[in-house]
Amino acid sequence: MGDDFSCQVKKMALAMGASLSDKDLDLLPEIRHHGSFNYTKFFEYMQQFQTLEEREQHIRKAFQMLDKDGSGFIEWNEIKYILSTVPSTKPVVPLSDEEAEAIIQAADVDGDGRIDFQEFSELVTKEKIPNKKK
Q1: With CB atoms counted within 10 Å of each terminal CB, which end of the chain scores lower, N or C?
Q2: pTM above 0.70, yes or no
Q3: 81 by DSSP, 3-state: which?
């Protein structure tokens, strides 16, 4: 697709709440034919992407489930608790304080020893793979 056209398609996708990569554009079915734009094909293609608002709602809900004390942060004791309650068919060994701290450090961008919503959101959306609606 032409650069200007690709830019416009990306802008339309953003207006619909989805962010398209160049790879997504390459997978887009032929929507231009003799200078006209096939909106029907475009909208059908866009249905597979979850809107940014929907994605953020799901991430926020997951964050709130992990933030047991409602402080707005996921702290090491919450990580330990959550991971100790995950069902498993094998015996579960509780995390040590050091292991829980290592999990926090992996996501803790600002170095305050806890994970805020932004850090959590960045952690779970690192791959930027579009989510499909089910």
Answers
A1: C
A2: no
A3: helix
Q: Is 4 annotated as a binding residue?
A: no
Paired with 108 in beta bridges are: none
Write the pLDDT tens digit of every residue in 48-104. 776 777 778 878 888 898 899 999 999 988 888 877 666 556 666 667 788 878 888
**Pair 124, 62: CB distance under 8 Å:** yes
Q: 69 is written with which tokens? A: 């004390």
Does the annotation place 73 within a ligand binding site?
A: yes
- Say if strands 36-37 and 73-74 run parallel, antiparallel, or are unpaired: unpaired
DSSP per residue, 23-66: HHHHHS---EETTEE-HHHHHHHHTTSPPHHHHHHHHHHHHHHH
Residue 120 annotated as binding site: no
Domain-by-domain residue ranges, the chain? 3-46, 52-124
Rg, C-alpha atoms of the chain: 20
User: Is position 99 annotated in a ligand binding site?
Assistant: no
- Is 71 annotated as ligand-binding? yes
Beta bridge partners of 74: 115
Q: Would the pLDDT of 2 be above 60?
A: no
